Structure formats: structure tokens, C-alpha cells
Amino acid sequence: xWARQAEPGRLWIGRLDFRSDLLSSIEEFAARxxxxxxxxxxxxxxxxxxxxYYHQQKREYLSIEINENLEILSCLxxxxxxxGQPAAHLHILLGDRRGSAKGGHLQRGTLVxxxxxxxxxxxxxxxxxGFDGETGLPLWxxxxx
Length: 145
Prior knowledge:
By secondary structure, the chain is mainly beta. The chain has one helix and nine strands, in the order E-H-E-E-E-E-E-E-E-E. The chain is globular. The two termini are about 15 Å apart. The mean pLDDT is about 95. It has a single domain (about 10-120), classed as CATH 3.30.1330.80. It has one helix at about 20-30, and strands spanning about 5-15, 40-55, 60-65, 70-80, 85-95, 100-105, 110-125, 130, 140. A hairpin with a 4-residue loop joins strand 2 and strand 3 (about 60-65).
């Protein structure tokens, strides 16, 4: 295990655009505001969702498309740099009209019906994603500042 101390930076609250892509919207906002590290929270509703499940043996994400209206019960994650650009790593929990929950790793294609977000910038450590040979995932590199 390794850890680095971070200090809170700028704090944003905002509203997501109708029918925007949830993941792309967060990453575009981070790029525009030059956020290199941060934590993300979002709530609201989506018209449809695309989530992923990481198959550990195959070392690949399996996409799950959910073509129904859903509430965002929780969407949490972080921002760091990948290939020099802000990348959001978000997990989402969704509720359907029967009160059942579905979720996974947020992927592109999740269309916002209504949404609000909070992004807390983190200052201090440089968080860069790189390939991790043990898991096959793009994880935070242990080096850096």
C-alpha cells in the first residue's frame, strides 16, 4: 500500500446538460478547468446507462447496456491524468422503477436526464494512471511527485 497527502483545492458545484454523456461531461469540465487530480460526486437521473464489469481472469471490461430510465443513487470516483489528459474513474449505482439497484464502472454512452455534480480539486500529489501488470488495469502509478 502507498499513499500521499493531498490538500483541498478549488471546489465546484454544477449541473449537467440534458442528454449529455455523463463521463465525457465530467472529463471535459476537468480539462477546461485544468483539474489534474480530484474527487467527483454526482446524483440525478439518466435516460440509459452503460456500465462495465472488469473480468479479472480475461483482464477486460465487459460492457453492460441498461436501456431504461434510472435514478443515479450515487456516482463516486476520482480524477487523475492519463496520457496527459484528465481521466475520470467513476463507479455508479443506479435505481430502477422497482427499487432495484444496478451499477458498475461508468462508461461512455450514459445519457443524462438531469444531474448535479460536485468536484473537489486535490493539490499536492501528481496522480498519473499507467498500466499495472498485476491487474491489467490503468492504475495510479506509485512514482511521481
